[in-house]
Amino acid sequence: MDQLELLWELQKHDEKLKKIKAKLEELAKKGHIENMTIKIQNLELQLERRKKSIDESDKKLNKNSEILRDLNFQLDEIEKELYSGTITDLKQLDYMDKESKNIRKDINDVEIEIISLMEEIENFKIDIGKIEVEYENIKEEFKRYAEEYKKVTDELRQNAKEEIDYIYEISSKLEKGIYEKYKNIKNNKEKVMAEIIGDECSGCHMILPTYLINKVKESHEIVQCENCGRILYFVDNSQKLPLQ
Ligand SMILES: [Zn+2]
Questions:
Q1: Mean pLDDT over residues 133-141, rounded?
Q2: Which of 20, 164, 191, 214 is most buried, judging by how many CB atoms fall within 10 Å of its CB?
Q3: Spacing, Cα 209 to ligand 1 middle (Å)
Q4: Quick one: fold of 31-173?
């Protein structure tokens, strides 16, 4: 490979490395992992909240069961006295009868409260079941994605390393002055090399003088386009076509 061909190779590997770096950046930017992490945390929070709500409802339920036990005990006591026949005072009997009615009403209220608490707990449990399914699914998806992400990025990093090695190898074969010229142009232009297509510089579409084209085609000299400054290169396609 002569110096001009080395430059052309250098550009090819520079381009490849650039594409690999862009892909890696793109993957990092997508933030899919971040989004999934937020979603997982959110589901964990929802689960925690519902479990807390169940605990609270359970406490209320226990308290109400105690109240119910007390009320039933009070009712038993009053009714025992009411029907024992030992109390003959009408006023007192009337009072006790009212009291027993009040307790029955309270018992009814507490029972309704207990049923509604039990329903509430049941609904929380159903909710938890649904959230847990979603949670397991997203965790599984996260695991798969993280593995895939690692595989892809590892591969890209390996490719980048290979390209860097190629670039180093090619650069070391280039004459110092030529390599510096390449670097200087690269600071200002995305592509250092421009292919001669027909009689044009493919970088800026300027028509090139024949003597310049011949310098590149025939003597493989390092020639810059007079207009855009890119180093001119000629890809000889005729050799690749079997019919010509
Ligand atoms: Zn040009």
A1: 95
A2: 20
A3: 12
A4: Helix Hairpins (1.10.287)
